[in-house]
Amino acid sequence: MFLFRNSYNNRKAASFFNQHRLFQSSLSQDFSNKAGILQKNTLLEQNGMKKYDHTGIETDHTSQNELWFLFRGETLFLQTQENSVTIPTSSALKQFNLPFEEKQHIGKHDSKNCFILNLPKTMELPALPKDMNFYPLREAHVLLAEKSIFSMLLKAIQISFWDKKTQFCGSCGTKTSLDGKMMAKACSDCGSLTFAQFSPAMLVLIWRNDEILLARSHTFPPGRYNILAGFVEPGETVEETVVREVKEEVGIEIKNLRYVASQPWPFPSNLMFGFTAEHAAGNICIDQEELDDAQWFSIDNLPSLPHSVSLSRQMVDAHIASRKKMNIQTSEWPLLKSISPKTPFLRRTTITALAATGLLMAGFWKPMKDYVQSYIEDQPKNRP
To answer: What is the structure's pLDDT at 35?
Structure first.
């Protein structure tokens, strides 16, 4: 008896069928099915790249087998074909007098060499055809989200940002140049190498029964909410970052922290690590410098959320699907459902005993004991 009572105390957050384990297993399966953007068309599969090679890549400015990621400031040059935007080829750009010699090769997509080219913000192109235009990066990010080129787009945006920020050596100030063998900037004076860098950050979806915690930053569009996020600080693991950020931003404690997935987020150069966690204790108390609002939302009544291209939205969608699936499975146990006031006493007693045994095996002796006790007390003392 002591062992079962102790088991109950240790697992009091679990549900009727070991709820947390069932939910996490279902979440992993649903997320892998839903997050196709993250699971397919990886750069390695697309490019067949074994080693970075910037040397020896010659461009053919009349070729259809070259794709050019053309950046100007915070915009990307796109071409419209059959009511859909795409990355232009060399032949589409030949009408413009572009400094192609400043290109950077970033790999291959469908056997086509891919290049990036950063244009000066002040550079004006001739009158653009109706099917070509510069799009803000975030808009381009959404427009190309469902296309196979998406993974290469993420890489292109991040390398473009890195290229613009490393034009000069951070140690001595000398003009840098691309290293031929590695994705790095080399300094001809002091010999230092500057590699592409990114900032690790965490996302965490916190749940409590059929609710999830969502917050909005001061910079969000009106009415927009999202799961919590924060950057990893020096000396921290990502898991430690989750606990710290949650405590700092909303003042609650969490448990059952689980890793879900990661996603490169090129605004400007982040790598997001997604987690789920269960609410453990505490009421919401927001850091007003960081957040405008934070509250619990029912999964059946959510506010405006980010676009489905983001890992955060994919996690929310997967959580809702898993939670609803679990609720269907556990809402009514057929054995207990069969009990009614018209059920003969002997059958009711047998069913209750079986239910007690099943719940006892799952570590739920105390609630079942209370239920049986109250049931017995409610029965007439003089039974026929």
So the answer is: 43
